[in-house]
Amino acid sequence: MAAKQGKARKLIALFCKRINSTEVSQESLPLGVEVEEEGKGLGFICRCIVEAAGSPAADQLLGTTPEMQAEVSQWLSFASSFSGNKLNIDGRLKLLNVHLENRSVFAGRGLEISVADLSMFAVVHDIVTEESFPELVKLPHLLRWIDYIQSKDEAAKVYPHIPVEKAKFDPPRSSPAATASKGTSVLAISSSVRSQTTTTVSDTAASSELKAEATNVEVEVSKAVEVSVKNDKKAAAAAATTVGGSQGDEAAAQESSKKMKKEKPPAQKKESDTSVSVLDIRVGLINKVWKHPGADALYVEEIDIGEGSVRQVVSGLAKFLTPEQMLNRKVLVLRNVKPGKVRDVLSSGLVLCASNSDHSQCEPVLPPEGSKIGERVTVPGYEGSPEEVLNPKKKQFEKIQPDLTTDDSGIAKYQGKPFMTTAGPCRSSILNGTIK
């Protein structure tokens, strides 16, 4: 315990030193912490060191809002109580993995490390290095977070590096002939194409896929009924013109046909080309990510959106997130854009991202925890059927995009109404931003 606390204290002192550009001495700690720390939990000691360091370290590591401070306090308490037998610890590690599914850090919705992350890293690192947990490879979100924290210089000075197996670089290849045969056209950045690479679909993804197929069947049945009704009317008109054979009968048939035309119900109005309902937005999971071979600012990702095979997507996020932060991350994918090339890389889809006014911050909009891969994201009041493929000539997305924003709570919205999944609204850590 003393060794664990000693490393944790050193780690936090190094972070405070970098933020404040000053040393955090042992004498600056509150009275009693040094001599009575054996009776205190790790979270309590971590808090004391940060509070003793003062601003701006205390503000950054403990949070400045009541919500952030409450989250940090909960995780500090959790760090102090993180102990028990192997079964108990396994369960807690799985809990941490679930919590990090849609997060980069433990407290807050952004990428900024808090004292909650530092205290939890001290606990988790001690467990991973002391015990062998084969189940750890099944916790990709926890591993992603471990790799993010240990990539910081302060952590590298205190803790041994934990090997984290990352996705192998194996981008799909296609010949020029195969590329030409697909008849694709050029699109704006963030378009993407279905990858021919198959992937194992989880039970959740398979369920989502079946639901998507059921929805498609309903649409097709509805269309078939409409066609059948139209054909019946045409057949009735044709029969009316052929019954009898006399000129009088023909005249009667023509009169009947005219009446049918007059009584024809008005055509249903199509959804506006500028309504958000024409967009087919799906919850996806990034399975693989690598740098675009021809552009430093771009990533190429393989994303599972519940179709049975992954899609290849090009996104301009290389300046804002590391590949490790992208991997195993849930995102929103606009799936019905027309396939095209981005710097000679085929792609079909668009990862929806939020950015601030000067575009110095940008990140994918996150679906909520519990949302299912492949489920469609809707906006209340705009639940109509989406276009099969958006028409680039109509510039549908370009007309809709100015109304896509995040509010002062980070919730993604269209004209003030939230992006919804079965698990709740989608959101971003970027407040009052724009979505592209």
Automatic annotation (TrEMBL):
Species lineage: Eukaryota, Viridiplantae, Streptophyta, Embryophyta, Bryophyta
Keywords linked to the UniProt accession: RNA-binding, tRNA-binding
Annotated coiled-coil segments of the chain: none
Keyword Plastid annotated: no
Classification via Pfam families: Arc1p_N_like (PF21972), tRNA_bind (PF01588)
Composition-biased stretches (Basic and acidic residues): 263-273
All copies of domain TRNA-binding, residue ranges: 275-378
UniProt key word RNA-binding: yes
UniProt region (Disordered), positions on chain: 240-274
Name assigned to this protein: tRNA-binding domain-containing protein
